[in-house]
Design brief:
single chain; alpha/beta; 2,3-Dihydroxybiphenyl 1,2-Dioxygenase, domain 1; 2 domains; four-stranded mixed sheet; globular
Length: about 130
């Protein structure tokens, strides 16, 4: 079966997109696995153990995502409301405020909030209110 999980986000400007994930989402930049070559480079973030996010330059990418909801990545957090407030105060594009998911029950509340990165890639915080 599969042994690792990676998300690759390609952009024409990885330096700027890297700053969003490092500064707004507070993901730790993994300098040892970042790559800096003249024409092909990018940045690796360790999200949780083996869960990695790569942001890299790609010559076939121009501008922001034209279909931001085609792929939505979920980030599971302890408090959806806290992360929503944090990224909103840092200027992230908010798609939806925190709300209950259809899977939420009184015994197990489960909330979601949706946002876009600076290039219109869609992410959601999932977890407790």
């Amino acid at each position: 079966m599969f042994s690792k999980y990676r998300i690759l986000i390609f952009t024409e400007n990885p330096d700027e997109l890297m700053k969003f994930y490092r500064d707004v989402l507070e993901l730790p930049l993994d300098e040892a696995n970042s790559l800096k070559l003249p024409n092909d480079y990018g940045y690796m973030f360790t999200v949780n153990g083996d869960w990695k996010l790569w942001i890299g330059r790609h010559s076939g990418i121009k501008g922001a995502s034209k279909e931001p909801f085609r792929h939505i990545f979920n980030l599971y957090v302890g408090s959806v409301g806290e992360w929503y407030d944090k990224i909103k105060s840092r200027g992230a594009k908010i798609v939806s405020e925190p709300c209950e998911t259809p899977f939420s029950t009184p015994e197990k509340p489960f909330w979601v909030s949706t946002f876009l990165d600076p290039e219109n890639n869609c992410f959601q915080f999932m977890g407790l209110p």
